Structure formats: C-alpha cells, structure tokens
Amino acid sequence: MDVNALVQNASVTLVAAAWKVAGAAALFLVGRWLISFALKLIHRALATHDFDVTLTKYMQTALRIVLNVALIVALLGFFGVETTTFAALLAAGGVAIGVAWGGLLANFAAGAFLIFLRPFKVGDAITAAGVTGTVESIDLFATVINSADNVKNIVGNNKIFSDNIQNYSANPYRRVDLTATISNAVDHRDAIRLIKLRLSGIPNVLSSPAPDVDIVQFTPAGPLLCVRPYCLIREAFGEAGYPSPMPTYAVSGMLAGPPLDMPR
C-alpha cells in the first residue's frame, strides 16, 4: 500500500469535509439571520396595522418553528441526507417518541384553543396551573407567565387549558378587601359612616356597586371591620382622633374563704 497516496487521499477527504462543515456553518448563520430578519419585518408590519398582540406572538412562534425546521432540512440536504430517509428515521423512533409527540400535540391543540377561545390575552394578570402573574406570550406548546417577583414561568398549554383559570384583567372593575380593627371604646356605626364618607371622595371608587363596610369579626382588641374597596383607613381614623385598639380582658371571680388547714 502506498502510504503517500493514502495520506494524500486522507488530506483531500479532510479538506473536502472541512469545506463542507464551513459551508454548513455559513448556511446556518445566514439562515438564522434571515429568519430573525423575517420575523422582525412581520412583527413591524403587524404592529403598524394594530394587529392583535396575542395572535401576533402566536403567529411569530409558529413561523419561527416552521422556518427553523426548514433550515434543518436544508442543512441535512446540504450534507447529502435525503429528507425521506430523515422522516423514516423519525417515524422509527419508537414508543417513547410517540408518547412525547402525543404530549406535544396536546399542548399544540390546547394552545390553538387558548388563542381562539381567548380566556386571556397577552398582558392579562391571571392565575392558571398554580402560577400567578402577567401573560407575556401564548406560544405553540407553552404559555409564558411572568410572576410578580419577575420570575419567568413556562407552563404547558394543555396544563393551563385543563385547569381552572382566573383572569384578573377581564372585568372592568374589581373589589379590594381590606380590614381594620377599631377600639372597643369606638362606636362602630360612626366608624362605618366615616369610612363610607371617605370612600365616596376617593377617585376610581365606583358608586355602583356600592362599597361594603361592615363588622366581619369581634376580636379582643375590638371589632374587625371589612372595607371594600380600597380606602385610606389609617388617615381617616387618625383625623377622627380614634385611640389605638388595645386588647382588653374582663376577669371576674369570687373571694375564696380561709384555707381549711389554717389554725383557728
């Protein structure tokens, strides 16, 4: 065997493979840049026409996945891999891939229902699947929710769709529940009148439905008032000169007689 010929053939093969890899890398980088550029153009065009934000993000996610899959197929074709062979390999992946694909299909279908049924939209404050926060996007397979402590939560669409959903942004107004304890020495009727008077002067407090102010519980410190909605309770009571509530206890009993063993 001619060693020089073997080395020469190996060098030619390695150089060809290196050029192939370099070409694939260039194709990947250019493809990714084109995908990003196309998505920005679509986002700009839809934003110009005031297109729905929720549907815009959903369409962008779907288009991103389709274009990336097309890029992967193009790279495989660049290396000479037949797409039909690639599809056959995926089809022969076995039961595990089938189960995973079934979960993806469930999340995909749930995402489509979330888009068209609209239990919430991007920007709404919700509680779903045990997560509370603001909806950032509804993607093909998952929904992104930012919680109040600025944590990004990615929840499967099927888990959200199959669970209870609380949308705090759906209705035009909400009731806020607060409580305030007043002293036992204060007339609760006067306190309720004072709170209702202050509520009527606060902007954004609706007169219909009327705010509720009532006693919700009796405590050792004094009656506990529930106030709905928000009111400057502390300032109102301070201006009225109410004393601070203090726990009070009443002790009653009888004086005991002298002990039986006391000498007489």
Features:
single chain; 264 residues; alpha+beta; 5-stranded antiparallel β-sheet; 3-stranded antiparallel β-sheet; 8 strands
Share in helix: 40-55%
Gyration radius, rounded:
35 Å
User: Percent of residues in beta strands?
Assistant: 15-25%
Rounded average pLDDT: 78
The side-by-side strand order for the widest beta sheet comes to 4-3-2-1-5
* Global morphology: elongated
Number of helices: 7
Secondary-structure content class: alpha+beta
Major sheet characteristics: 5 strands, antiparallel
Distance between the termini: 132 Å
Total beta strand runs: 8
Query: What is the N-to-C order of secondary-structure elements (H for helix, E for strand)?
Result: HHHHEEEEHEEHEEH
pLDDT < 50 runs, ≥5 residues: none
Report on the structure:
By secondary structure, the chain is an alpha+beta fold. It contains seven helices and eight strands, in the order ααααββββαββαββα. It has helices spanning 3-48, 53-78, 83-91, 95-117, 157-161, 188-200, 233-240; strands at 125-128, 131-138, 142-146, 152-156, 165-167, 178-181, 212-219, 222-228. The strands form two sheets. Strands 4-3-2-1-5 form a five-stranded antiparallel β-sheet. Helix 1 packs antiparallel against helix 2. It is elongated. The N and C termini lie far apart (132 Å). The model has no long low-confidence stretch (mean pLDDT 78).
